[in-house]
């Protein structure tokens, strides 16, 4: 199997081996040490400010998006949501479910967020901003520095969903002033799904510690309290947290976060260069490194996905909703190489020679 989806993605052999081992008991000093090591490396790679903390959540990243909305905002807030696709819409839905007053800055699929769009909301009394730094459904990368400047100017609590951007696109949490950064195990971290990390800057730590959240599992103050000793309130996905530890150290050994970001960027560039010969169009005005959304000019996007899966053993990522038949996505994250890109391009060329593109 060759997997070009945007999660779960291909894992390294070392990470896969851990998946075959017995899962150890976790209320031990050894597991606490591993968790604290995970926290230190996450803070380092996120370029988080001194005093930041990490909550390791056993849920997919949507659970962390929900936890952040519940713990960081209340009905007294006025939140601006950047909505350029299905993940932006998810933040909008979460605000509705939890009764958080909000406005939506709506962008068309693939549209870049400009300073002009954003500053229409300047000085309007917003207290929070929710954004998916890479809107993975359309592959658009938003400018975290520009958003951070806007938030600083307006004293807005700044939440970044970096689920597919973390370790794929440059992101400096302290520099852009993000209060919260969310990511998950199955994207660039290239581990199985099941764990999501919430990195909280000092201002966010203070906010969640004082929050009055009506939830047991999504009580981030409780999570942070336990994490002081490298533990979690409830049984975490112990095996995946061990895989994350191995993966974080692999990244360190290879040169750190910036090296991994450069590797993903080069994987994306290689694919974008190679696919130019084929009858496709790119969708995004401001492409993120993690994924390339592709619009086939003469064929049905979903049929290309099915054909590659059933006849070539290659998985690309179909799109949902109204983009299902017009756009498919090719991921550049996980354990993939330039040669893997060539295999995919050759499969597409083979389909073309058979009149299927
Ligand atoms: C993958 C992803 C998520 C989370 O999806 P889950 O299915 O909950 O893991 C959230 N936001 C973005 C931008 C993503 O790419």
Please describe the structure with a list of short key phrases separated by commas or semicolons.
alpha/beta, Aspartate Aminotransferase, domain 2, binds pyridoxal-5'-phosphate, 2 domains, 357 residues, seven-stranded mixed beta sheet, Aspartate Aminotransferase, domain 1, four-stranded antiparallel beta sheet, globular
Describe the main β-sheet briefly: 7 strands, mixed
Number of strands: 15
Helix percentage: 40-55%
The number of helical elements comes to 13
CATH architecture verdict of the largest domain: 3-Layer(aba) Sandwich
Low-confidence spans: pLDDT under 50, at least 5 residues? Answer: none
Straight-line N-to-C gap: 22 Å
**Rg from Cα:** 20 Å
* The top level CATH class name of the largest domain: Alpha Beta
Bound compounds, please?
pyridoxal-5'-phosphate
CATH superfamily of the largest domain: Type I PLP-dependent aspartate aminotransferase-like (Major domain)
The best one-word shape is: globular
Structure class: alpha/beta
Proportion of residues in β-strands:
15-25%
Chain-averaged pLDDT: 97
């Amino acid at each position: 199997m060759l997997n070009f989806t945007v999660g779960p993605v291909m894992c390294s052999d070392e990470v896969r081996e851990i998946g075959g081992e017995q899962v150890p008991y976790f209320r031990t000093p050894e597991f606490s040490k591993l968790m604290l090591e995970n926290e230190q490396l996450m803070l380092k790679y996120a370029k988080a400010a001194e005093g930041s903390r990490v909550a390791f959540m056993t849920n997919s990243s949507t659970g962390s998006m929900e936890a952040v909305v519940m713990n960081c905002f209340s009905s007294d807030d006025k939140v601006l949501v950047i909505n350029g696709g299905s993940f932006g819409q998810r933040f909008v839905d979460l605000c509705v479910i939890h009764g958080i007053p909000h406005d939506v800055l709506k962008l068309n699929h693939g549209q870049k967020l400009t300073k002009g769009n954003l500053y229409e909301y300047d000085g309007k009394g917003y207290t929070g901003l929710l954004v998916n730094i890479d809107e993975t459904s359309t592959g658009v990368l938003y400018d975290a520095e520009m958003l951070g400047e806007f938030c600083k100017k307006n004293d807005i609590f700044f939440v970044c969903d970096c689920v597919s951007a973390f370790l794929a696109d440059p992101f400096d949490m302290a520099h852009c002033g993000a209060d919260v950064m969310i990511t998950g195990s199955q994207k660039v971290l290239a581990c199985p799904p099941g764990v999501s990390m919430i990195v909280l800057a000092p201002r966010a730590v203070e906010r969640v510690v004082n929050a009055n959240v009506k939830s047991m599992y999504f009580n981030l103050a409780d999570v942070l309290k336990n994490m002081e000793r490298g533990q979690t309130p409830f049984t975490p996905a112990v095996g995946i947290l061990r895989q994350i530890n191995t993966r974080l150290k692999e990244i360190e050994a290879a040169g750190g976060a910036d090296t991994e970001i450069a590797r993903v960027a080069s994987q994306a560039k290689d694919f974008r260069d190679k696919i130019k010969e084929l009858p496709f169009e790119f969708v995004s005005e401001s492409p993120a490194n993690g994924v390339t959304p592709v619009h086939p000019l003469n064929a049905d996007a979903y049929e290309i996905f099915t054909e590659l899966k059933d006849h070539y053993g290659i998985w690309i990522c179909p799109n949902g909703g109204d983009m299902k038949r017009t756009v498919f996505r090719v991921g550049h994250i996980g354990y993939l190489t330039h040669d893997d890109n060539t295999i995919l391009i050759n499969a597409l060329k083979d389909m073309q020679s058979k009149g299927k593109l």
